[in-house]
C-alpha cells in the first residue's frame, strides 16, 4: 500500500476497480484546510483521462509494473504490433494503450509497461521526441513573417503538425510526442 506522498508521473494504481496511470499530479497545501493531491489519471483499459483529488495521506493500491523495450512493427486497423527486442516475441496492443499513435513510425523503439503479476501489457511510453520527414506542406510566402507564424504540415506517419513558415517538404523535424508539437528542424 502506498500513500499520496508516493504519487509520481507514470505510477500505475488501482482506482475504482480499474488500472490507471498517473499522467500529471500536483501537491496542494492551501493556507486553510488539509493538504491534497490533484491528479490526472489515464485508464489503461479504456484510454479515458479523468481528474481526481486525493486527500493527503490517502492510501492507494500501487500496481507493480516492469518496463520492456519493444520495436513497433506495423498497424492493422486499431491494433498495433510490437516485437520484444530481447526475445523477439510479438504482441498486439489496441490504439487506446498508446499516447500518440499518429507519431509512431515503423521501426521505432518504445517502452511497454507490463503488469508484473500476469505479464499483461498495460501501456506504451513513447520516446520524448521523434524525428519525422515532412511529406507535404504549403510553401512559405516571402514577406509573410509575422511573429510565431505557423502552417500545417503532414509528416511521413500521416500526422498533421503546425510548423514555422521556413519548413519545406523533405525537411526532417523533431516533434515532442507528449504534446504533438514542433520542436526544431534537423540538419541532414
TrEMBL record:
Output the SMART domains linked to this UniProt entry. EFP, Elong-fact-P_C
Q: Which UniProt keywords apply?
A: Cytoplasm, Elongation factor, Protein biosynthesis
Which pathway does UniProt place it in?
Protein biosynthesis; polypeptide chain elongation
Please provide, alphabetically and separated by semicolons, the GO molecular function terms listed in this UniProt record. translation elongation factor activity
Which subcellular locations apply to this protein? Cytoplasm
Any GO BP: peptide biosynthetic process
Translation elongation factor P/YeiP central domain span:
67-122
Q: Does the keyword Methyltransferase apply?
A: no
Q: Write down the CDD domains for this protein, in alphabetical order.
A: S1_EF-P_repeat_1, S1_EF-P_repeat_2
Q: Which GO terms describe its cellular component?
A: cytosol
Which Pfam family is an annotated match for this chain, by its short name? Answer: Elong-fact-P_C
| Keyword flag Transmembrane helix | no
**InterPro entries given for it?**
Elong-fact-P_C, NA-bd_OB-fold, Rib_uL2_dom2, Transl_elong_fac_P/YeiP, Transl_elong_KOW-like, Transl_elong_P/YeiP_cen, Transl_elong_P/YeiP_CS, Transl_elongation_fac_P
Signal peptide boundaries: none
Q: Which residues form the Elongation factor P C-terminal domain?
A: 130-185
Q: Which PANTHER family match?
A: ELONGATION FACTOR P, ELONGATION FACTOR P (EF-P) FAMILY PROTEIN
NCBIfam families cross-referenced by the UniProt entry: efp, PRK00529.1
Q: What does this protein do?
A: Involved in peptide bond synthesis. Stimulates efficient translation and peptide-bond synthesis on native or reconstituted 70S ribosomes in vitro. Probably functions indirectly by altering the affinity of the ribosome for aminoacyl-tRNA, thus increasing their reactivity as acceptors for peptidyl transferase.
HAMAP family reported for this sequence: EF_P
The entry sums up its family as follows: Belongs to the elongation factor P family.
Q: What is this protein called?
A: Elongation factor P
Query: What is the protein's species of origin?
Result: Wenyingzhuangia fucanilytica
